[in-house]
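A.,

Following up on our hallway conversation. Structure tokens first:
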């Protein structure tokens, strides 16, 4: 596969990754995949929440891969710590289970990807590169289930009074267009190409979307928009 030179994750400057998982076999499998891809660099591993906290504080990294259930707690707390300590870093959560509640909580605390262990779809370097370049990563099966869940929630939610302006009026047509592309998993660079605008302009639109919708991550923006059918 040809990797465009404008994307993050080049052989001379790979995406730095930390891995936190208490399953020794799975940890070896994921570590091997990351080390075999020249575009990703594994800089540290841990097997507990306690060790994970140390990794986050001591290492410079771009993406954290973290298991939901660790032997001394839950990985969600590590995502929250990462967002405080390393706000520019991204997090991908993975688990043996396909729990909709876990996926939603992962995105709510700031993850931009969710993987199911032993899934046939995709691989760990691919997920790392996707989120490092501004995208989100989730398997199609989980994505479909979450969309159905959002639709069910939306249909049961009470309608806003006609006297209030809807959230959709907050976003310009261009911002809705950018948000649609974000929801489809495109990176900022890909959105810029598709819309024939600069990547700086794309990121400016995304910041405005965050501010208007009062969210902090792409995943939260997409979830908010899906629940309220803003596009």
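Then the amino acids I'd put at each of the 231 positions:
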């Amino acid at each position: 596969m040809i990797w465009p030179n404008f994307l993050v994750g080049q052989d001379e400057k790979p995406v730095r990754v930390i891995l936190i998982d208490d399953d020794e076999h799975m940890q070896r499998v994921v570590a091997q995949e990351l080390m075999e891809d020249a575009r990703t660099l594994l800089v540290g591993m841990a097997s507990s929440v306690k060790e994970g906290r140390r990794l986050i504080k001591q290492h410079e990294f771009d993406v954290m891969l973290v298991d939901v259930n660790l032997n001394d707690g839950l990985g969600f707390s590590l995502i929250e710590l990462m967002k405080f300590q390393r706000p520019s870093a991204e997090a991908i959560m993975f688990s043996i289970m396909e729990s909709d509640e876990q996926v939603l909580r992962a995105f709510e605390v700031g993850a931009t990807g969710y993987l199911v262990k032993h899934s046939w779809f995709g691989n760990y370097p691919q997920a790392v590169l996707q989120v490092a370049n501004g995208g989100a990563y989730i398997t199609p099966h989980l994505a479909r289930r979450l969309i159905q869940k959002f639709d069910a929630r939306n249909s049961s939610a009470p309608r806003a009074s006609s006297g209030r302006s809807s959230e959709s009026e907050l976003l310009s047509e261009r911002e809705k267009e950018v948000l649609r592309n974000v929801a489809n998993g495109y990176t900022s660079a890909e959105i810029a190409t598709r819309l024939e605008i600069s990547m700086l302009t794309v990121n400016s639109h995304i910041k405005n979307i965050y501010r208007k919708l009062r969210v902090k991550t792409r995943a939260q923006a997409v979830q908010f928009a899906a629940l309220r059918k803003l596009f």
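Residues 158-166 have pLDDT under 50 and may be disordered. Curious whether your intuition agrees with the design.

B.
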